């Protein structure tokens, strides 16, 4: 029997030692990245807001940039432990909270149950939802879900034939005025939208020079490789301009990157982040002694353990005095300027679900951003979009507590800047779009309390 397992002609297999060449295979330049490096035009200005305001100019100020958290960073929490009743209670509380704001804003004496028959017009409030589990919302499928206090959580169909101006989406909390004569359909005569959050006083440091800020959103490498040439190109530009602040919003190592999603990556995501991102940021901070870098995670990031929204800050993989980790979302102050940022593409999600009939609010992007402010939350949609995971126990951490001076909402939509009730809303776009260069934004904040007229925004194609 022993002869069956031996052969004089068999050659022993050769065991090759592991080498660091695996990471080189992941990060070597592809043909597309090579073409990116030799592109004819780079950092092309494609849009502006308040272009008459001058740039900061050469940085000569000795005073350091001041950072403050307007809302405490989100702490790590246990997820995937939601209980149905607790989730329902949290959602119900949010309906009643927005309802109380509507009641106070419109001086309504009392709300009534719109699911009951009434000959006289009444005021009510609730959450917009659809009568179908699949398909988009339309003007014939609108339901109003009531809170426990108003209608025991029941739903009533809305007739919109008398309303000439509305913009609705599933999850939106609104007030309604109308009648339900036959106990089956509530005929809406008017929608009452929630008021905007209140603005807190900005403690602007008027003795400082303007703050120049670069804002970019991932991905930071093209889909053909993990060489991160677009990020390096952006940092080289920042070395020349020496901005006060660079806000980099994830994903940094995206789970949706073709190499990662297909399993063709040979290095650990943490190794790629350290070699391709962390080292570049450290080199930039050494060369730019007055610049600060802010990092914000994304649910698609492979280098963090919270694949949902909201998110605590990234772990301190980079330790530097001028590198700051932000939670997602975040509300911060830079030299007294109140800035809010949320790193989830809620604008694109809302656009797919919204129905609108509004002769007044014809600008689509302004309308979408206005929903976020009016609903007092960075994620007003319900049910959530496919692929999004929102922890109901953390709803307080995605609440828009007050009006910021600047609101940053990265989206796959074309970059834009909109002014909404004194809030400058900015979509910087994504730094990379599949196999092509994307866009980023430059913000110049002047030391004045009138942020709307004293902020300049430039939108660049990388």
Automatic annotation (TrEMBL):
Subcellular localization(s) per the UniProt record: Nucleus
Bias-annotated ranges (Polar residues): 1-11
Species whose genome carries this gene: Mucor circinelloides f. circinelloides (strain 1006PhL) (Mucormycosis agent)
BP term (GO), one: DNA replication initiation
Statement: the UniProt record of this protein carries the keyword Cell wall biogenesis/degradation: no
Predominant cellular place of this UniProt entry's protein: nucleus
Keywords: DNA replication, Nucleus
UniProt-annotated stretches for the region Disordered: 1-20
Domain DNA polymerase alpha subunit B OB residue range list: 89-191
Annotated GO MF terms: DNA binding
Protein family per UniProt: Belongs to the DNA polymerase alpha subunit B family.
Domain DNA polymerase alpha/delta/epsilon subunit B: from-to ranges: 214-418
GO CC list: alpha DNA polymerase:primase complex
InterPro entries: DNA_pol_a/d/e_bsu (IPR007185), DNA_pol_alpha_bsu (IPR016722), OB_DPOA2 (IPR054300)
This protein's name: DNA polymerase alpha subunit B
Superkingdom, natural source: Eukaryota
């Amino acid at each position: 029997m022993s002869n069956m397992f031996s052969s004089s002609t068999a050659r022993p297999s050769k065991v090759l030692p592991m080498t660091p060449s695996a990471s080189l295979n992941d990060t070597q330049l592809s043909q597309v990245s090579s073409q990116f490096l030799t592109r004819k035009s780079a950092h092309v200005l494609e849009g502006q807001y308040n272009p008459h305001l001058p740039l900061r100019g050469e940085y000569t100020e000795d005073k350091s940039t001041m950072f403050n958290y307007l809302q405490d960073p989100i702490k790590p929490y246990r997820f995937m432990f939601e209980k149905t009743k607790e989730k329902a209670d949290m959602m119900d509380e949010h309906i009643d909270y927005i309802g109380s704001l509507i009641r106070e804003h419109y001086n309504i004496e009392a709300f009534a149950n719109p699911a009951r028959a009434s000959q006289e017009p009444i005021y009510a409030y609730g959450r917009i939802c659809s009568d179908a589990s699949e398909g988009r919302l339309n003007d014939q499928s609108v339901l109003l879900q009531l809170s426990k206090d108003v209608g025991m959580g029941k739903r009533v169909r809305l007739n919109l034939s008398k309303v000439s101006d509305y913009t609705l989406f599933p999850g939106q909390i609104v007030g309604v005025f109308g009648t339900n004569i036959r106990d089956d359909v509530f005929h809406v005569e008017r929608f009452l939208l929630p008021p905007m959050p209140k603005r807190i006083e900005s403690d602007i440091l008027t003795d400082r020079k303007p703050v120049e800020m670069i804002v970019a959103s991932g991905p930071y490498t093209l889909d053909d490789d993990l060489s991160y040439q677009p990020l390096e190109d952006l940092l080289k530009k920042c070395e020349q301009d020496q901005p006060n602040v660079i806000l980099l919003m994830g994903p940094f190592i995206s789970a949706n990157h073709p190499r990662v999603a297909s399993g063709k990556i040979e290095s650990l995501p943490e190794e790629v982040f350290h070699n391709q991102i962390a080292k570049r940021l450290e080199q930039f901070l050494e060369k730019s002694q007055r610049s600060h870098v802010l990092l914000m995670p994304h649910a698609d990031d492979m280098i963090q353990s919270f694949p949902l929204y909201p998110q605590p800050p990234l772990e301190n993989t980079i330790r530097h005095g001028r590198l700051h980790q932000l939670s997602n979302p975040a509300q911060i102050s830079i030299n007294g300027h109140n800035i809010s940022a949320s790193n989830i593409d809620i604008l694109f999600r809302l656009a797919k679900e919204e129905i609108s009939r509004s002769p007044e609010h014809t600008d689509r992007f302004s309308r979408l951003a206005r929903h976020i402010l009016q609903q007092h939350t960075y994620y007003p949609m319900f049910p959530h979009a496919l692929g999004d995971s929102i922890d109901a126990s953390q709803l307080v951490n995605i609440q828009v507590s007050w009006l910021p001076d600047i609101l940053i909402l990265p989206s796959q939509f074309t970059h834009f800047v909109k002014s909404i009730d004194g809030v400058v809303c900015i979509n910087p776009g994504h730094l990379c779009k599949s196999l092509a260069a994307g866009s980023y934004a430059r913000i110049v904040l002047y030391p004045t309390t009138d942020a709307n007229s004293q902020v300049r925004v430039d939108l660049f194609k990388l």
